[in-house]
Amino acid sequence: MRIVSGGQSDVGQQRANNEDCFRIVQPLNLFVISDGMGGEAHGEIASAMAVETVVNTCMGEQTRTIAAPAETQAGWSDKTRRLLDAAQLANKNIYDSAEADPQQQGMGATLAAAWINEEKLSVVHVGDSRIYLLRSGVLQQLTSDHSLVAEQVRRGILTAAEAEHSELQSVLLRALGTQPDVEVDAEEHILFPGDILLLCTDGLTRMVADKEIAALLRSESDSARAAEKLVALANENGGADNVTVVVVHMEPKESGFLSWLRHGAQKNAGKNGSA
Amino acid sequence: MAKLTLMFEEKTVKEVSLSGKPVGIGRSPDNDLTVDNLAVSNYHARVYVDSGKMVVEDLKSLNGTFVNEMRVERATLKHGDSIHIGKHHIKVDATGEAPASYGSERKAATPKINETMVLDTKMRREMMQQAAALGERTQLAAGRLRVPTLVVLGGKTDRQEYTLTSKLTVIGKSHLATVRLSGWFKPKMAAQINKQDDGYYLGAGDKVPSVNGVPIQGPVQLKDGDQVEVCGVRLNFIVRE
Question: How many whole angstroms separate alpha carbon A60 and alpha carbon A221?
Fold first, then answer.
C-alpha cells in the first residue's frame, strides 16, 4: 500500500490560542495528535510535550522504557508496545513538568496516535481525541472516548444522541499528565487498500456530525485537501474549539508505468505542524 | 434576618445571614459559603434578595444547583427549602425579617464551562453515581460486563466461536481477520463489526451481509440473538453477561 497523508490544525473561531498539536512522521508512517488543557499557555506545552515524546520514543531517540502495564496483550507487535510505552512516558513527562512548575499545575493533554506498518495498524489513545476508519464507505470509530458522557452511554445511562447535547462533554475521565499513572488504550487493526484513517480532536467531532465527516472523506480524494475542508467545516459550524485533523489514505500500490507517471506528483503528501 | 446554613450530611459547616449583599456559594475561598468539593464549581451559585424575595441563582455551574431535588437556574426560596450543591446542602431559614432588596447590577463573572477538566478516580465515582441517580434507565447503569460472541452456525471458518473484544472485528479471508473465512473467491474483507459506545454495529465490506435474512442498507446495530449471514457463513450474535 502507498500511504498518503495530510494534516491541518486551526485555532477555531472562539478561542484565543491553539492548544492542539499534531505531527506526521512520514518515514515511519506515524501520526500523532494531542489536545492540551490547562489555563494560560500551559495546554500548549502539554500537547506539544505529548506529541514530541511519542514521536521521539517511536523514532528511538528516547530509549528509556516503562514496564509495560498489565493490560498489554501477548502477541502485540513491537510497534504497539512501543506506542504504549511512548504514551506512558508522555504522561510521566507532562506530570513531572507540572509538578516541578506550580504555574503548570493542572495541565494535561489528550493523545491519539496511529502507526502503520504494512497492513498492520497500531493505535493508542487517552482522552477524547478520536481515530476513525472509513472503509467500504462506512465511518467507524476505532477509539472509545474517555469522557464522562461516553462512559454514561456505555453504561446505558445516556443515549448517544443525549450525550451529544450534554453540557458535561468537556469532562474527561482520563488525560495525559494529570495523574502519576494513566491507563492507555491500545489496539491493533488490519488495513486494506482504499481505507482512510482520520485522527481528530474534539473541535471537529463536536462541530461536524459523523455523517458529514464520512461524506467529505468519501468525496475528497486528496488527503491534505480533505483535512483542510474538515477544518473549514468545523469553523463554518461555529469553531467553538481548536480543531486538528489528520487524514491518511491507504492507496493500492501502483506498478510500472502508472507509478512512474505519478512519481514526483506527490505534492502536499505530508505537512508537519504544531500549534 | 434570613439565614443560610451549609451542611455536610448532618453536620453544620457554616452559617451566614442574608443581608443586602448576595451570598456567593462555590469552591473558591472568596465565596461567602465555600464548598470544598471538586464537583462544585468555583463560583457555583448565589443567593440574594430581589424585590423582597429570596432567590437562588445557578452561575452556570457544571453540575447544577438543586432546590428540593429539582435542578434550577433561578428559583425563589421559601422557609424550609433545601439547596443541594454537590454532596452538600444549604438549609434556608427565612423566619427573620426580610432584608433590603439587592438589585442585580453586579454581574457575576461567568465561569468557563467550556474548559476541559479531568476527573480523578474519586470524583469520577461520585459523578457517575450522581449521574445514575439523576438519569433515567438506571436499571442498566450498574455497568455489568457484557461479552458479545459470534457463534458459527454454518460455513467454513477457522473457529466455532469468536468473542468480540476489539473495537473493530473483520470477517474475511485476510490472514489478519478475526473471523477467518476459507475457500476460493472469498473476499479479504467481507464485513465488519464496529463496537460503539451504545452497541455493536455491523457494516458492509466487499459484500453486503444480511441480518435475520434482510440485507443491510447501512450499519445496523446488532441485537442479542441476531443471525448474520455473509459469504455463505452464518453467525449468531449473542450477548453473555
Answer: 33
